[in-house]
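Example record

One chain of 275 residues, shown exactly as stored in the release files.
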Amino acid sequence: MSGYILCQGKRARFPYYIENISTNIYTLEELCYYLNHNIYLLDETILNEGLCRWILEELGLRKLYDKLYRMLDEKVPAGTFILPIFKEIHYLTMEEFRELNVRVQKLEQEPPLLRQKIKGDYLMENGKYVNAVRVYQKTLAELENGKMGAQFAGTIWYNMGCAYSRLFQMDEAVSCFEKALKLQPGEKTRKTYLTAVCRGQEEEVWKQMAEKAGADEEEAKEAFREAKEAVETETSLDLCGSLDRICQTPGAFLLPEGEQVLAELAAEYHKNTGY
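Predicted structure tokens for this chain:
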């Protein structure tokens, strides 16, 4: 599909709200666009009875409603369920839809817990940190001991810590990084954990934390010096990378550069959470 898609169908008076991305859908064209670009989010939270009712009551598409409702009863795969929606307005060519269906089927073949983690990662990458945390929490709650391995659980704790850090909930972030470090010890996880806990700490205090986490004295000293130099020399930081650098820098929240970055991130926080 190329070029613009003209909304030729009916526009709903009341939108279909997709909570995962905090988006209101008003037309079938908008729904097709969402489905096509967010395959990692295609699950029962979107493809459900509520969507069917919205298509009937707001768009007046009785035949499409009947098809979809029947498919819900039959519990068909997501790729099969979305086909009539695309066909209704010829949104994709058959070749484009075949490519989409292959991607969806490949995803559906993955273990359910892995699909959930991928969903959380996708939300993280798109700045939906609150929703990402919810997905990670759900995945961890359903994770059976040893079934997916400690490393898998460790990556979820680590990513959830990153989500919390972007929501300024640093106590929760530290807790997540600590759990991740126990499950998958390594330099990356250890450094992230240390930089999260060392905000505003003196070097000696931070070195003690580093030693407790398994880092040797030289590694802790070097990391502290590099982090301090990064804050002192960089006055302009990319927004997407700012929180990573700020959270990985001792005392960064106390510096003028940090205040400016935090102001920008506060605006992002309100945008992503609605608060």
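Notes: The chain is about 65% helix and 0% strand.
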